[in-house]
Amino acid sequence: MDWTVLNSKKATLDALRPFPLALVRNLDEWFRVELTYTSNAIEGNTLTRRETAIVIEKGLTVGGKSLKEHLEATNHAKALDYLQELVSKKARKLRERDLLCIHEMVLAGIDDSNAGRYRNIAVRISGSSVVLPNYRKVPALMEEFAAWLIGKHDLHPAALASEAHYRLVTIHPFVDGNGRTARLLMNVILMMHGFPPAIIRPRDRLAYIGALESAQLGGAKAPYERLILKAMDRSLDIYLKAVQDDEEESTVEVENRKLKIGQLAKAAGETVPTIRFWTKEGLLQVAEVSESGYQFYDPAMIDCCRKIQALKKKRMTLAEIKTQLES
């Protein structure tokens, strides 16, 4: 697999650094929600993208959803925050204790007896004919994997991330949470090397699981690697578009076109979670919703945000602010 095809976009992205702090914050917030939603959805969590945002950004609960699904969302978001800490410390190597810490966060409050611990029972993947390693071999296999992880590599960083993900899910060292932990591992490796995290979309779930299983049964690994490569490429495109759009903001009047949520937040001097919350409460109106679920706002919402800010300074409640806006 030619992982170097990512290099050109990575070089373009690096040439645009450093990014504005507001843009970095908005991208981090978007990826935090998207990675949490998609990784959990692959494992069967039924929270929608918007519900996931409400849970992890506002700390609210969603009616009709289980406690386990809420915990899966908040746990994954906290694990992503931990990855950011590792990256900010400029850590270049991941050790076995880091993997156990990530897994402990993934299962916290869901299965505390197994969180951060290797399995001590035989397990099978539902609907799969893959035979997983005997649990007695797991500690030695993980010690070997951890040594490989911190060793010297000639692999492209993207190839290293992909291979680390594959090896971990193949060992399947935990009773539960293997997929989430493997995807988090893959992404922290990418982030440590200056790449954005890769998003495996729910629509690609069957192809993703099928490609993994085929490789684990002795088939070619290329279909799995192609799927991961495409996911990495899409994330680079997301970053490039966001950065290039942000640069255009300095020369193009935002009042002449519909605004993305990040653009509205920037123009109003607010955070993206605040704009989402005001929208949910009916204080702001969405003008359009794209096929992929992205919201767009009329430029008039900038003035609306300023009115909300002014009314908040008067210590009005949300209900009172809404009444004022409607009148």
Give the C-level CATH assignment of the largest domain. Answer: Mainly Alpha
Shape: globular
Task: Give the SSE order as H and E letters.
Answer: HHHHHHHHHHEHHEEHH
How does the helix and strand content classify structurally? Answer: mainly alpha
Radius of gyration: 22 Å
Number of strands: 3
Low-confidence stretches: 249-256
Distance N to C terminus: 61 Å
State the CATH architecture of the largest domain: Orthogonal Bundle
Number of domains: 2
Strand order, largest beta sheet: 1-3-2
CATH fold annotation of the largest domain: Fic-like fold
Describe the largest sheet.
3 strands, antiparallel
Determine the strand fraction and express it as a percent band.
under 5%
Would you tell me the overall average pLDDT?
91
Tally of alpha and pi helices = 14
Which superfamily, in CATH terms, is the homologous superfamily of the largest domain? Answer: Fido-like domain
* Percentage of residues in helical conformation: 55-70%
Describe the structure concisely for a colleague.
The chain is mainly alpha-helical.
Reconstruct the topology from this structure.
Layout: H1 7-15, H2 21-42, H3 49-58, H4 67-88, H5 96-107, H6 138-150, H7 157-171, H8 178-192, H9 205-216, H10 222-248, E1 259-260, H11 261-268, H12 272-280, E2 288-289, E3 295-297, H13 300-313, H14 318-326
Antiparallel strand pairs: 1-3, 2-3
Would you write up a description of this structure?
With 327 residues, this protein is an all-alpha fold. It folds into 2 domains: 3-246, Fido-like domain (Fic-like fold, Orthogonal Bundle); 255-326, Multidrug-efflux Transporter Regulator, Chain: A, Domain 2, CATH 1.10.1660. The chain is built from 14 helices and 3 strands. It has a 3-stranded antiparallel beta sheet. Strand 2 and strand 3 form a beta hairpin. Residues 249-256 have low confidence and may be disordered.
